[in-house]
Amino acid sequence: MSHQEPVARRMYDLIEPIGLVPYLADESDQALIALGLRNQWDAYFAGRAAPFGRSVPAEVVHAVFYNFAPGEVARHIPKVWDLTTPEAALAARERGCVAGLRRILGNLADAPGVEHAADLLLKAAISAPVEGRALYAALRAVPVPQEPLARLWHAATLLREHRGDGHIVALLAEGIGGTEAHVLHALSVDMPAHEFGRVGHLPAAQLTAVIDGMRDRGLVGSDGWLTAAGRAAKERVEAMTDRLAEAPYDALDAGDLDRLVTDLKPISAAIQADFPW
Questions:
Q1: What's this model's pTM, rounded to 2 decimal places?
Q2: Distances (CA, A) of 229 to 146, 178, 188, 226, 236
Q3: Cβ atoms within 10 Å, residue 2
Q4: What is the SS3 assignment for 255-268?
Q5: Rounded CA separation 208/181 (Å)
Q6: Can you tell me the distance from the alpha carbon of 170 to that of 66, in angstroms, rounded to the nearest whole number?
Q7: InterPro entries attached here (predicted)?
Q8: Distance, first Cα to last Cα, the chain
Q9: Measured on CA atoms in the order 104, 107, 110, 113, is the torsion positive or negative?
């Protein structure tokens, strides 16, 4: 592992593919929709918000998830809890994700490296402080599954939400709003904002108003692309996100980290081959 690269950045590249399985593998949505949910976005909100239980209102989920446009969460929360329960949603999400991983990994799903990686990843995932990290804290209260592949996915999800909570702190520190965060990301990879899936569906006037606000602050230029100041803001957000994501890995020594990287590489590569991005 490079000493120049933050541990959290190196681990992000390996763990993120596992953490994205709920959003990329059909099995997760299928398991949740089988509970009576109406569509893919019902499945998203039920699965991800389930650790909070049924009594947390849409406004709180909107605040914690951060990057949805006004009103989007309320189309699903609390309606999904009229159709199923948080406990059933958690179980279905885990079941679907494990099925998706098993399909993608094939024989690798039962390899010794999966159990080794699950043990080390879980050790890191449950070691970080929860203060200021609402979604991570809620997920920490969910029972840890015993089956190795399920444990690996659960640990990756914990670490993904821990990092996500810190990412929101970094965005807030830069004054970047939720919809603005999507625009910032899209433009940073040279994609017009209206082509980016998470905001491309918004009414044109709404998206234009967001971009105009970023232009007024010097983040976007008259050409519609990021200015030097905009790119610098993006780099500061990513650097702070990495710094705030380091804590879990303090629980692992250098040997643990090297072993974890070795075990995760083929798992991550297999998932990325199945879902190229």
A1: 0.95
A2: 47, 19, 12, 8, 10
A3: 8
A4: HHHHHHHHHHHHHH
A5: 14
A6: 12
A7: HTH_67, WH-like_DNA-bd_sf, WH_DNA-bd_sf
A8: 23
A9: negative
